[in-house]
Amino acid sequence: MIKLPLFRNRLQNIFDCFGKSIIMDEAFSKGKILVNINDIARLAGVSKATISRVLSRSPHVNESTRKRIQKIIDDNGFEPSHLARNLSRRKSQTIGIVIEDIANPFFISISSEIEKILYEKKYNMMISSSQWNRDKELEIVQSMIRSSVDGFIIAPISPDSEAVALLKRTGRPFILMNTFSEDPDVNYVSTDDIEGGKLAARHMYSRLRKDEKIILVTGYEHQNLSRRMEGFFLYMESKGIERDQITHYRNINTYNDGLAIVPTILMRSKLKSNKASIFITSDDIAMALQEGLLQNGRTLPEDIRIIGYDNIEFSRRCRIPLTTVEQSQKDIGIIAAMELLELINNPLKEVKQYLLPPRLILRDSNP
């Protein structure tokens, strides 16, 4: 079935193609579309001259008034006049990339694939990281709108974050990656993480030894990590292993967190002598746990078996090559870039929503 985008979003994009920065508020429901500085002045209850002074950063504006006007501008995605003139409406040939963690090897790989496509199509890339901070994520999107990027590829902290809501409200071309949306009018590309969690559980279950402990390690509370965890639990439950039989370590978010949690895992799960299988919902943390366990004298996979998730480049190069669930960073990057560029050139194109199949990669950590 063809999914048609929300009328108001697509109408915004059509106007953008003709060089107008459009702001929509409750007036839209009354059949009125806001198109110029007069409407900003009306919303703020000030004169056009005051708006102009704010846009030109004049010191002759009360600070509280300046903040109130700037919030109206930011909330509605209005482009200040000097940027609008630069557009004319010429495209900026720049795409905004917003990710959660710029140091994460997973996002480094995806960004590299995006950059290749954009370079071929004569586009530049502006990239920034939210560092898992919702306020920062929103500020980044607002700043990129003011910089007149032509569209966004965003890996949001949540598919219903304020940053995503702003992009929807202003009709900016965008595609989500590494998450999915239940909104039928939002483009996204992600991995079927529930199936990925099941793949990890199926392989672990098939290799379980007598009296072996089952351990799950998860990071930030994020949609895709939650779905991996859910898939893992669902498969284990189908085999008669209840959730309370699985030891779960939460909020292990960084490589250093992974190293730091090893003594706790060894003590609480009594792994100084017992065997265990561990599923970690990201490769970065899995490699940290592996290193920490080896430093504490445990052997892999003889004593402890590990399964990671992502199949980042380093996962096959660590001391014990990592068994992992692959989500194709190459495919995610290529699809995100190509779909966004098509959306920029054709605002009325059919919505595309991709859930890519994961794949189990067997290596030495859990052969």
TrEMBL record:
Domain HTH lacI-type intervals: 35-89
Keyword Calcium: no
Signal sequence interval, chain numbering: none
SUPFAM superfamilies: lambda repressor-like DNA-binding domains (SSF47413), Periplasmic binding protein-like I (SSF53822)
Stored PROSITE patterns: HTH_LACI_1 (PS00356), HTH_LACI_2 (PS50932)
Gene3D superfamilies the UniProt entry points to: 3.40.50.2300, lambda repressor-like DNA-binding domains
SMART domains: HTH_LACI
UniProtKB keywords: DNA-binding, Transcription, Transcription regulation
Entry keyword annotation includes DNA-binding: yes
UniProt-recorded Gene Ontology molecular function terms: DNA-binding transcription factor activity; transcription cis-regulatory region binding
Protein's recorded name: LacI family transcriptional regulator
Species of provenance: Oceanispirochaeta crateris
Record lineage: Bacteria, Pseudomonadati, Spirochaetota, Spirochaetia, Spirochaetales
